Structure formats: C-alpha cells, structure tokens
Amino acid sequence: MNKIYLIADTHFNHDNIIKYCDRPFSDIEEMNNTIINNWNSIVGKDDIVYHLGDFLLGDNIKDFLSKLNGKIYLVRGNHDGKSIAFYNNIGLEVVPTKTKLDEYKIILSHKPLEDRGIPDGYINIHGHIHNAKLDDSFDPSKHKCVSVEVINYKPIEIENVRKEG
C-alpha cells in the first residue's frame, strides 16, 4: 500500500535560508543533496507527498522533481509564485490552500490556520514558521508544523504526524 508523507519549507536553492533558519549546512548544494537523499530514503516511487509550501527558489523546479520519489501535491506557500497551470504542467499538482483530509482528521495549509477555522477533532498541519514557535493566540494541540527544520529534513509519514512532536 502506498504511504502518504508530509513536508514543508524545503526551500531548495535558497542560500539565505541556511543562515536565516540556522540550517546545519555549509552551502545550498549540501542542503539540497541532504534533503533529496533523506526524502528518497523514506519515500517510495509510488508514495504520495504533500508539500506544504516553499518548495524551491528559482526556475529549475522540473529538475528537482525528477530527483524526488513519489507523487507530489503542493499546497502553495508564499515563495511558490508560479501559476497553478505552470506547476500542474510540470507534474507538481497544486491542491487548495486549505486541503482537508477527513480520513486523518487534518487540514493542510502553508501558514498556520486560526484555531476557529479548525473543526473539532482536527489538527492543522502546516509549515511557514520553520523552527519558530507559534504565538500564544494559537492552541498548540490544534497545530503541527512540518517545516524541514523540525522534522529532521525528511518527510514525516502521515500516520505518525499526531504521535511526533
């Protein structure tokens, strides 16, 4: 059976993100290769990955897609500025900004959703905040960040998302 994984904020090719988020890499080549290798060591060719935004800086998206296992669905983030048609045409399927997966009782988004927008019993899986903490206006029991900095630079299986962190 195919597995489903979640990840956010890979920021492939974004050299400033290393300093900005204190990532443990000497340069973007090391960062890109580490994330790609971690991804492919976990994700199989037929698995599904929901990428919750800020995939890559630059125009060589198709090159990166060819290096990554799985069928990738993108919840666009603030650094994913291409059109939906562009992403879909290169094989990166864009899904709605707030994607609800009822089977798992989760809502996927790039930015954390306000608590009042999360149905009872659901949690919001998001990125955007990287290794920062949510402010006090958010109920931490209703949110899970899957930015790469907090999930060890590798996708997390959807079955484990409530168990970890």
UniProtKB/TrEMBL annotation:
<dbReference type="Pfam" id="PF00149">
    <property type="entry name" value="Metallophos"/>
</dbReference>
<dbReference type="GO" id="GO:0016787">
    <property type="term" value="F:hydrolase activity"/>
</dbReference>
<feature type="domain" description="Calcineurin-like phosphoesterase">
    <location>
        <begin position="3"/>
        <end position="131"/>
    </location>
</feature>
<dbReference type="InterPro" id="IPR004843">
    <property type="entry name" value="Calcineurin-like_PHP"/>
</dbReference>
<protein>
    <submittedName>
        <fullName>Metallophosphoesterase</fullName>
    </submittedName>
</protein>
<dbReference type="InterPro" id="IPR029052">
    <property type="entry name" value="Metallo-depent_PP-like"/>
</dbReference>
